[in-house]
Amino acid sequence: MDKYWLERTELLIKEEGLEKLNKASVLVVGLGGVGSFAAEFLARSGVGNMTIVDGDTVDITNINRQLPALHSTIGKHKVEVVAERLLDINPKLNLIKINEFLNPERMNEVLDAGKFDYILDCIDSVTPKLKLLIAAKRKKIKIVSSMGAGGKSDPSKVMVRDISKSQNCFLAKQVRKRLKKEKINKGIRCVFSNELQNEESLKMTDGTNYKRSFYGTISYIPAIFGLYAAAEVINYLIKKEN
Predict the structure, then answer these.
(1) Cα separation of 210 and 105, whole Å?
(2) pTM score, whole prediction
(3) Separation of CA 6 from chain center
(4) Contact, 219 vs 64, CB < 8 A?
(5) Residue range of the domain that includes 194
(6) Could you report the per-residue pLDDT of 130-156, keeping only the tens digit for each?
(7) 34 closest CA partner among 231, 238, 177
(8) What DSSP letter does each residue of 122-167 carry, written as one string?
(9) Count of domains observed in the chain
(10) Distance CA 136, CA 149 (A)
(11) Terminal CA-CA length for the chain
């Protein structure tokens, strides 16, 4: 097994680009509809070191939008399903699996242990998302954060901007408001859609895992969020000075 599987990538980004990606260390937190696709795009680009974090198992309701979710994987841990797939893409990938929902205490521990070049925040609940963003900002680690993919259906409205420029996204609004209390008003890249959310697709929940409600989702929107997040990271790593 050699790097010929990256032959087409090398034509585009040259050997120097491949080397930068191979040396890079990236953390993906959350392996749902956004994070699972982001992790796959990172692996297929040749990123050499990755840590993936998620404490959830595959549920039948995940099948409409999440890469690890199949009828054959229901009940399995997302971290294990995604890890197997990533190592099948690149057997030489240095992969660390963390099968847990990161609580605030563990967040600092994980960030300190990793020497990460970039973090992808693909968490869909506000409190853990905020803790990760604040920790990354305080430790001066680059981070791209995925905002709300629910209630949206127009892929042309998805973009990456500073969080201060996000609009028409309830999750981004909540995150901005709470970051402001921490004196953080800008300096975090985020993926969001400025399409108005479909209010009729909202469903309330019992509040487990920090989630009080969720919006309906369609197969391709979380995937395009993951694509934009991965592209942001890959393009940064290629351009990064050694």
Answers:
(1) 16
(2) 0.95
(3) 23
(4) yes
(5) 30-238
(6) 999 999 999 999 999 999 999 999 999
(7) 231
(8) ---SHHHHHHHHHHHHHTT--EEEE---TT---GGGEEEEEGGG--
(9) 1
(10) 22
(11) 27
